[in-house]
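Forum: Protein Structure Q&A
Topic: Joint prediction for protein chains with partners

I've read a bunch of threads here and the consensus seems to be that you should model interacting components together rather than docking separate models afterwards. I'd like to see that in practice. Below is the full input, 624 residues plus whatever partners are listed. Could one of the regulars post the assembled result?
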Amino acid sequence: MNYRQADLPVGATPLRNQRGTAPGVRLELSGPPPKVVYAMPGVPHEMYVMFTDEVLPELMRRAGRPAAIVHRVLRTAGMWESAVAEALADEVSRLQASGGNPAIAFLASQGQTRVRITARAATRDEALRLIAPVEEAARAALGLGCYGVDDESLESVVHGLLREHGATVATAESLTGGLLAGRFTDTPGSSATFLGGVVAYATELKHELLGVPSDVLREHGAVSDETAMAMAVGVRERLGATYGLATTGVAGPDLQEGKPAGTLHIGIAGPDGASAHALRLPGDRNLVRTYASVSALDALRRVLLARQAGRG
Amino acid sequence: MNYRQADLPVGATPLRNQRGTAPGVRLELSGPPPKVVYAMPGVPHEMYVMFTDEVLPELMRRAGRPAAIVHRVLRTAGMWESAVAEALADEVSRLQASGGNPAIAFLASQGQTRVRITARAATRDEALRLIAPVEEAARAALGLGCYGVDDESLESVVHGLLREHGATVATAESLTGGLLAGRFTDTPGSSATFLGGVVAYATELKHELLGVPSDVLREHGAVSDETAMAMAVGVRERLGATYGLATTGVAGPDLQEGKPAGTLHIGIAGPDGASAHALRLPGDRNLVRTYASVSALDALRRVLLARQAGRG
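Posted by a regular:
Agreed with the consensus. Here's the joint model:
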């Protein structure tokens, strides 16, 4: 099989594959009109880089230099798509009335909403000049909801804030069951700020591993602000981190302690004490878990920003 | 925004959205020829169910009852696509020589390879009769590599085996950083078999939280079979689980302890003692972490199957 992947049709040249061994083929056919055939692998991540690195630049070259189309993406967290759209409604109306260049689009995915500003112009610089005032107005309207631009991830922004603070974090998870730690460790170099975490899925482990007092569990239940806060305090102390971040809730589909699927409590413990707050998340089990891990990351981001503002 | 989502063009009917509030629209246009326009949301998971539940059945009805096309998917883990293809090469050749019905396709994604057997016939029963002997031959060729069929997930199969054994599991993660626990908790009802886990990302936490002896860490390093085994033993004891499952390795992009990105050590501790083995995984950081969590789940599956066979 692997030998066969190295075979090529007569006259073809290989397309570079930076992600695996699946072959890519480029074959020029004489005209008229002349044609180029590209064959790429079906595995999405292999196809993606091959298309971006090899095929797209050639297609653009062959099409002649196009007029500049420039995108600027503002990334938000902690706001649903309808809240983002509402915050930007005036700006969108204004742009539509004045010809739709730049244009604004909303892209919601995995609990985050991106705001894409697109401008068309003769040159890239001219497109950027069109984007600048729209970006400024959008940032003002989004406030703290906007955490970054273009390819920045929420994870990398939180790691960056922790580094600026000289701080570390540890996680205590129930509802998110490891996904929150998984997000912190997504980023290369995350060991500088993420120490580790505890997944206390069984209720008694919240007591044994994290030191959540038994009477808190008995009086308030495992799904409560009080337990979320005690989990955050416990993991912060036991792992020796600057911040402890905890999730507890109901992923669904079944009720737990009489509370519905989508219930989330986030606890944060840090140098200034501990706090907790509750959210209700929509969607099925998978989405609730994804939204919950995004919400927890975003909650820590807002605490770090508030502390920064308080010191500044 | 939410009110506007309830607006419909004159003459249109709404398409049911079981996953969110984004609107779907169905509009019949008089002919000739008569046409139907469907407008669906851009959010993939909302579009997906709307298409499957509402649009596809109508399209099939309008097209007239088609001849039966039946798929059967065999799911494998612990085998790369080329190994799966090699195991089934004879069966594929035989089917191609005899007209390609049924046909076999290989679908690789996220560290797992699916084998899709497709048959076309006048009726569903006839298609199923064509598939049966091909499935039997494929299962024999794949052996333990085949863990399930159709929509079964590796996670649900492992949970099922644990339930059959009356066993529980706890995870100790370094390289996978929470993703392995995240997979165990993907499945509703997972709390029956998954107790919890520890993400010991910082090396000293492997000692403090999991009791990996300091001299093991010093002599063999954090990325070693010895540490993986000690992590599995530690988490099994501390969380009181039947099995402890551990990952340590190098996600990349940088070397760690002189070992290259893609190095993975899996440790398993259970009633019959502890073991560890090493793998080298391809791909970038994200893929290495995904492959590593699949490999660890699959390793536990194989231990549970071996124990079952030993008792049987």
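The mean pLDDT of chain A is 93.
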